[in-house]
Design brief:
238 residues; Nucleoside Triphosphate Pyrophosphohydrolase; 4-stranded antiparallel sheet; 31% helix
Length: 238
């Protein structure tokens, strides 16, 4: 895939919809950029709706599984995830502001960097996502999970999460509404319908008396708020 097309998908994954003028780099001529947008439309990586261009599921999957040299990888993504609770028994969730799954609630989590030890990766991600500097995290186990398209069974996400827990002293009210480039924090009793499916599994895993490994497949969540808008726009054009 051409680097211009990659940049378009990456930009739409961060924010969508966007219009032609929003997406076009200043150093790329109109005819060149139009060519690459047309290629992305033809390949099904982007769609055009009322508000502009949006990335499709196919594009999001490309972001998940295509390496820097354009070769497809069959390797899962390795992350750390931290289950933070307060003295009231609430769980700290992050409302994601990036695709895929923008607007959904998940745990503070992120990729393990090259050369990082697991515990260090978990502490770093916790600081980045929540500002919490935990002196010590408790290892709770490993969750191997996949998101599968409900009808076809097509694989969208395959992630192996090394799960840690942290009991925050006090109720942590200062964290409610804390925002970063990753999203906004809130304390939850896990009643919200837009909680990513692995969250409840991790809560159950953390309740075990000793660390375990669990593998589970989930129906893929609806990945964007504008997917339905895109569908409605196509229907209106018919």
């Amino acid at each position: 895939m051409h680097y211009i097309q990659k940049e378009v998908i990456s930009s739409l994954a961060r924010h969508a919809p966007q219009r032609f003028s929003d997406l076009q780099p200043g150093d790329v001529p109109n005819n060149t950029f139009s060519y690459h947008l047309k290629k992305l439309l033809q390949s099904g990586h982007i769609e055009l709706i009322d508000g502009g261009y949006v990335a499709t599921r196919k594009a999001m999957k490309t972001i998940q599984y295509v390496t820097d040299n354009d070769s497809r990888t069959s390797a899962p993504v390795f992350i750390t995830a931290v289950l933070v609770t307060n003295t009231k028994g609430d769980v700290l969730l992050l409302e994601r502001n990036k695709q895929p799954f923008a607007g959904w609630y998940g745990l503070p989590a992120g990729l393990i960097h090259q050369g990082e030890q697991l515990h260090d990766a978990a502490r770093r991600e916790l600081i980045e996502k929540t500002s919490i500097k935990a002196p010590r995290l408790q290892f709770a186990g490993v969750l191997d999970f996949q998101y599968l398209e409900q009808i076809t069974g097509d694989l969208f996400v395959h992630t192996i999460a090394f799960v840690y827990t942290y009991q925050l002293p006090g109720n942590g009210e200062q964290l409610e509404g804390y925002s970063s480039k990753y999203g906004k924090l809130l304390w939850s009793k896990l009643k919200n319908e837009r909680i990513l499916p692995e969250v409840n599994t991790i809560v159950q895993l953390a309740q075990k008396t000793s660390p375990i490994i669990e593998s589970i497949n989930y129906d893929e969540p609806t990945i964007t708020g504008w997917t339905e808008a895109s569908k409605n726009q196509r229907l209106r054009k018919k």
